[in-house]
Each structure stands twice: as C-alpha cells, then as structure tokens.
Amino acid sequence: MPRDVLQSVLRLRRLAHGEAVRALSSALSQETHAQSAADAVEREIARETEIACNLAADDAAVEAYGAWLTGARHRAEVARAAAERAEAETARSRAALNLARAGLEAAEALAADRAAQDAEAETRREQHALDDLTRRA
Questions:
Q1: What is the spatial distance between Cα 68 and Cα 62, in angstroms, rounded to a whole number?
Q2: Which is higher by pLDDT, 75 or 130?
Q3: In sequence order, what E strands does 21-129 have?
Q4: CA–CA separation, 83 vs 35, rounded Å?
Q5: How high is the pLDDT of residue 2?
Q6: pTM for the whole structure
Q7: Is the pLDDT of residue 1 over 60?
Q8: What is the pLDDT of residue 52?
Q9: Where do the structural domains in the chain lie, given as residue ranges?
Q10: To 5 degrees, how large is the angle CA 67–CA 80–CA 89?
Q11: Which of 30, 64, 94, 120 is most exposed by smallest CB count within 10 Å?
C-alpha cells in the first residue's frame, strides 16, 4: 500500500474511532438520563403507594390514588422502555467503538510495519554505500 494511502487510512481510522468515542459518550449520557427518569417514576409510585396505604388516609385519597396509579404505571412502562432502548444503544455504541478500535490498531500496526521496513531498507542502502566505498578504497 503506498505511503500516502496508508496515511489516509490512518486518518480515517482515527476519525472513525473519535466518532465512536463521541457516540458512546452520548449513548451513556442518554442511558443515564433515561434510567434516572425511570427510577424517578418508580420512586414516585412507591411514595404515593405508601401514602395511600397509610391507615389515616381517607377514602377519597385512596380513590384518587387508584386513578393516579393507572397513569403512573403507564409512565413507568414508557420510562422503562426508554431506558431499555438507551441501554441497547449503549451496547451498540460499545460494539462500534470496539470495531473502530480494532480497525485503528490494525492500521497503526500496518504503519509500524511499513516504518520498520523503510528503516531496514535505509539501513541496507547505507550498508551498500559503505561497502561500495570500502571496495573503491
């Protein structure tokens, strides 16, 4: 592979790796936010259930709780589904980052091999030049 093509591949692999890191960071942030929202709804349900189960609560409070609970359960389901989708996106982003990292490492290894070959070729050229000078002298 010509040197300039290899440099282009390295540059593209670095860009892809950086983008994968940013995508994972965003996915982790969204997952944290979605999980926090789901936890908040669950805490709200637990708090309201405790209030409604209090023996001092009147019938109106218990009836209001029953009506409220239907909507709260729906919100909890929606929040849990969003958290699960965010978790799946995080897993996908992690996999994409692993692939990008592997691609970058492969390109860097190829570049290192190319540099070693170039250095070896340069050493051989220098040795041939020294041998020629020695033969002439």
A1: 10
A2: 75
A3: none
A4: 5
A5: 65
A6: 0.76
A7: no
A8: 82
A9: 3-111
A10: 155
A11: 120
